[in-house]
Amino acid sequence: HVYVDKHPQPSQADDLPVLIEDHYGSIDIQPIMNISAQHETGDLHIAVYDFGSPDNAHADAMMWVAIGRIDKTGDYGPDGVAWKAAYRPYLSFKLSDLWTGI
């Protein structure tokens, strides 16, 4: 498991570890989306990869991506927040489809 929080690195901030700890043992895409929004991280983009279980040899590997958007003045929407990736819909892709060109 690898994560880097939004703070300059190295970071001693504990806000992200606390959010992750709240979901320990049950982290899948829904908690990750919630954690990203609560941590207020992901302005430009968020990418989440799940390479599946070791027993399944990556057959179930998935990727989710959320893309932020700016207006012509460089703002993330009228309130400066709503269009950040952390608050936008996620697209999901089966990695085997991406790798094989389906």
Written account of the structure:
This protein is of the alpha+beta class and 102 residues long. 25% of the residues lie in helices and 16% in strands. It has 3 helices and 3 strands. A 3-stranded antiparallel beta sheet has the order 1-2-3. The chain is globular, with a radius of gyration of 15 Å. The two termini are 29 Å apart.
What is this structure's SSE topology?
Blueprint: H1 15-22, H2 29-39, E1 45-50, E2 62-67, E3 91-94, H3 95-100
Antiparallel strand pairs: 1-2, 2-3
Helix pairs in contact: 1-2
* CA-based gyration radius: 15 Å
Broad structural category:
alpha+beta
Shape: globular
Largest sheet: 3 strands, antiparallel
What is the arithmetic mean of pLDDT?
Answer: 85
Order of helices and strands: HHEEEH
What is the count of helical runs? 3
Helix content: 10-25%
β-strand amount: 15-25%
Unreliable segments of 5+ consecutive residues: none
Oligomeric composition of the shown chains: single chain
**First-residue to last-residue Cα separation:** 29 Å
Strand order of the largest sheet: 1-2-3
How many beta-strand elements? Answer: 3
